[in-house]
């Protein structure tokens, strides 16, 4: 055996999914690529310290055990520093169920398709669509507010136009009075220049 030959190198472990491997649009908008948000949550969870956030024993849910540390170490790094309640609200929009633990300081999040090792199904997760009635109600509310603002602006414009017309009318009356006064003064001056009439 040739002792000068280097020992066989051990096979490198399979690379873990990394947050850097997720392609994000140049704008960084998760609303345009909602499936990427779940991939980022998965990667952030995999990289988190177990005392901060971790999978449950059966891998069907994950738990946030230390909210202040989760905000500092996970949300600040991976989610542009949003607060925990905002993060929980976003997950709720994706259909996650949140349960508060008995100690009152930890929360479990569960979704049927968000499981440990279930990376391939993450692109299927998308935000829940709002009911048509809720969307229409919101639009009607927005239109009602807009109509109210337009009516208010229209009333203000009418008042402004009325004020301008009144000022213009008063100015014309003032100019007419000045013109009449000037004519009277001219007549008086003309009579003064003629003087008293002389008898023959």
From TrEMBL:
<comment type="similarity">
    <text>Belongs to the HSF family.</text>
</comment>
<dbReference type="GO" id="GO:0005634">
    <property type="term" value="C:nucleus"/>
</dbReference>
<dbReference type="Pfam" id="PF00447">
    <property type="entry name" value="HSF_DNA-bind"/>
</dbReference>
<keyword id="KW-0238">DNA-binding</keyword>
<feature type="region of interest" description="Disordered">
    <location>
        <begin position="165"/>
        <end position="200"/>
    </location>
</feature>
<dbReference type="InterPro" id="IPR036388">
    <property type="entry name" value="WH-like_DNA-bd_sf"/>
</dbReference>
<feature type="compositionally biased region" description="Basic and acidic residues">
    <location>
        <begin position="175"/>
        <end position="200"/>
    </location>
</feature>
<protein>
    <recommendedName>
        <fullName>HSF-type DNA-binding domain-containing protein</fullName>
    </recommendedName>
</protein>
<dbReference type="InterPro" id="IPR036390">
    <property type="entry name" value="WH_DNA-bd_sf"/>
</dbReference>
<feature type="domain" description="HSF-type DNA-binding">
    <location>
        <begin position="33"/>
        <end position="130"/>
    </location>
</feature>
<dbReference type="InterPro" id="IPR000232">
    <property type="entry name" value="HSF_DNA-bd"/>
</dbReference>
<dbReference type="GO" id="GO:0043565">
    <property type="term" value="F:sequence-specific DNA binding"/>
</dbReference>
<keyword id="KW-0539">Nucleus</keyword>
<dbReference type="GO" id="GO:0003700">
    <property type="term" value="F:DNA-binding transcription factor activity"/>
</dbReference>
